[in-house]
Amino acid sequence: MKEKMSWATVADAVDYKGFPADKSKTGGWVSAALILVIEICERLSTMGIAVNLVTYLGGTMHLPTAESANVVTDFMGTSFLLCLLGGFLADSFLGRYMTITIFAAIQALGTCMLAISTWLPQLRPPRCNPAASTMGCQRANGLQMGVLYLSLYLIALGTGGLKSSISGFGTDQFDDKDEREKAQKSSFFHRFFFFISTGTLFAVTVLVYIQDEVGRSWAYAICSVSMMVAILLFLSGTKRYRYKKTSGSPIVLILQVVVAATKNRKLELPVDPSQLFEDDSVGSTKIPHTDQFRCLDKAAIMVEGDEDMKRMDGMMNPWRLCRVTRVEEVKMMVRLLPVWATTIMFWTTYAQMITFSVKQATTMNRKIGTFQIPAGSLTVFFVGAILITLGFYDRMVVPFWNKWKGKPGFTDLQKIGIGLALSTIGMAIAAFVEMKRLSVARSVGTVARHADSTLPMSVFVLIPQFFFVGAGEGIIYTGQLDFFITRSPKGMKTISTGLFLTTLALGFFVSSFLVSILKSVTSTGKDGQGWLADNINNGRLDCFYGLLAALCLINLVAYLVCAARVKPVQAYKDAEEMDEIGGGEKC
């Protein structure tokens, strides 16, 4: 009977009642599919709003172009930054199931409020006089912008909580000790990214079309209703899910090392590292001591009286004394930072694809016959580039590389480098295309003075910049995820994923910072518009793109220097296997 029980249950998972999870009744693809539905709706809402928000802020709320772009990038940056909060709450208090439920409801509330704010005339400023310039339009007042901001940041909060737990809860539905389920878990990541791309593709095509041709309130209402339906479907699987107990937040573990090292900062490190505190209990795994970041080693210095400071359970107080392995795990996280810092710039260029590139599209000929493509839908080429790149990589590059080099494709560091290089090329192309667009605007003279005028230039010339940056994302996203997960300590995978997502957040914030600085510095001409004019036909967006291309090139060189100094991470070892391990070098 005992053998039957151990075979039929999952060792480290429980069901909704807290009993060992029955493998035949819980988990698997049915449970994972219900979780993926939430992810589709999250992408539908977030990207459906983000890719076309800049046109709403400028055309309806009458915000200047640069400020509109910053609102979008701040919204997206906050969404990814809040993943850290969501991960902390899931690991420390709520668990992944409750985190997903609560934050999905918050996102549904945010999209509902956004639908209402775009529907009620009282929450929008009056329309401009067709004969007046954009500068003569009445800007949205404090109340109108306040309701809009509240809606957007509720959505950002919901997105952060969801993204921190969706992938983890999905993988919880598969048993690593079952070979069949382990294989299914591997394919889950591919399907997860496919669902993200599917949701984004639907958002930038169908949803953007509804926003422009039917009404934004209808489009946002669709997002809200779809999220509510997804929540109901998600809750319907409550009895089928496998739940894993939280083991505490990795953030707390890192803070313990920092606090302990700070308390011991005046102590001298022993000459022999073996004198540092370590858990020598049978069966414990260890990471050999390294000489890098020796200031953190002070967290493992034992002094007289430490034995008397044990807690009731017999363990040392981790805020006073940490084992060497815990210190080395924190060092492993620190070693990720050089690569982390040099990947932020990619997401700064990504931000331009959903802000200024969309603004460019609004000034160009977007007709195919009698059908006019919505400006926000141009990002479909961006999503298409991601899907094409991933398909080409899986079907062509991996088999070729395996046959030639005997390896299953590029390494994580090579993928990141390729992504950074592609984004650099994309920004350089964007600068040249904008130079051409501005020359056309100057040639038509008075027509280009109106922000709503259409230039005699096809919008499809923007495809190359969308394609190169999109292809870069397809490569760099998987490379970053692989890098941060495989090179982080086994107990800190969640925070390492959060660290990866902060590169997206900071990339958007850097974009906002650059736009604000350039708007201030370059607005010294006779019209005071500068590079980032409200009417981009009167600005120098090509100079902005050129600056980004130069910054990307400098960043790529810095990344190559850091990547060249990264060494393979070795596995945890038992006491008798302790040899010196080489970790990634700090840049």
- The computed structural class is mainly alpha
Largest sheet: 2 strands, antiparallel
Give the integer mean of the pLDDT values: 82
Q: Write down the oligomeric state.
A: single chain
Give, in spatial order, the strands making up the sheet with the most strands: 1-2
Q: What top-tier CATH class of the domain at 9-245 fits best?
A: Mainly Alpha
The CATH architecture name of the domain at 9-245 reads Up-down Bundle
Number of strands: 6
Tally of helical segments: 17
- Terminal Cα separation, in Å? 57 Å
Following the backbone from N to C, one meets helices and strands in this order, namely HEEHHHHHHHHHHHEEEHHEHHH
- Report helical residue fraction: 55-70%
Query: Which spans of ≥5 residues are poorly predicted at pLDDT below 50?
Result: 1-6, 578-587
Give me the CATH fold name of the domain at 9-245: Growth Hormone, Chain: A
Content of β-strand: under 5%
What is the approximate shape? globular
CATH superfamily of the domain at 9-245: MFS general substrate transporter like domains
Radius of gyration based on Cα positions = 26 Å
Membrane topology: Multi-pass membrane protein
Transmembrane segments: 29-51, 71-90, 97-120, 148-171, 192-211, 217-235, 333-353, 373-393, 413-433, 453-477, 498-518, 544-564
GO cellular component, one term: membrane
GO molecular function: transmembrane transporter activity
